[in-house]
Design a protein that fits this description.
The protein has five helices and nine strands. The protein is of the alpha/beta class.
């Protein structure tokens, strides 16, 4: 099955993709480095050299590259912070909707008066959850709140947005917007790497945060291994 994967820094050091062919795709929005094997392609949204922070990612080039390569179905894996006590670090979620009261335009409609209804398609998620459970426990139907990176949210911001959604991140709303505009189907998976700032009291412990991210990378790697098996059946 022809599938495009979009992921972040969790896969950069993974041996899983080390043997995949690396190629550069030139788009009208800039060049994008991708990894390919068979009917699959992988984009690291932050890039494969010096990682770009969330606000500096060339989202339009990334999504346009997938469209130019002929992909329709996209499976995205994002790192998120939890806005709910019952979603602790290490939890896998799938988001069905998002809040993106943003933060600079990320659109393909620069030269035409055109809009559209945004959203997350998740056309593959029911099938994936059915095949991934019980090895992986995935909380579905969650709401993603996008905030402007690279900084974390203030404690007061967290108190506001915890009523808006379940998890917070810095990238998925841009990607989902662009996929919908260009006709790609966006499927959401996300790993909870931390509780949002102040949600459980106190400040963000960045040493603990980086330790949690490192520990969760093993789970994300296993998830990708299983996804590749499923889409190769």
């Amino acid at each position: 099955m022809k599938i495009a994967f979009v992921s972040g820094t969790s896969i950069v050091k993974s041996e899983l993709f080390s043997s995949w062919e690396t190629k550069t795709v030139e788009t009208v929005y800039g060049a994008v480095q991708v990894k390919t094997r068979g009917e699959h392609v992988l984009i690291n949204r932050h890039g494969y050299g010096v990682p770009k922070p969330p606000h500096a990612i060339n989202y339009r080039a990334n999504i346009r590259a997938l469209a130019d390569l002929g992909f329709i179905d996209v499976v995205s894996v994002n790192s998120v912070g939890s806005l709910k006590a019952e979603l602790p670090p290490g939890t896998l979620v799938s988001c069905a909707d998002y809040v993106g009261l943003q933060q600079g335009p990320q659109t393909f409609f620069d030269d035409e008066l055109k809009g559209g209804a945004p959203g997350i398609d998740n056309n593959l998620i029911p099938m994936l959850v059915g095949k991934l459970v019980p090895e992986f426990s995935i909380q579905t139907g969650k709401v993603y709140v996008q905030m402007r990176g690279p900084r974390f949210e203030t404690k007061r911001e967290v108190q506001i947005i915890k009523d808006w959604g379940d998890v917070v991140g810095m990238t998925a709303a841009h990607e989902a917007d662009l996929c919908r505009e260009i006709g790609l189907r966006y499927n959401s998976l996300a790993m909870v790497d931390n509780y949002a700032n102040g949600l459980m009291g106190g400040d963000v412990d960045f040493a603990k945060f980086h330790e949690l991210v490192k520990n969760n990378q093993a789970t994300v790697n296993r998830l990708f291994m299983r996804l590749l098996e499923i889409f190769s059946e």
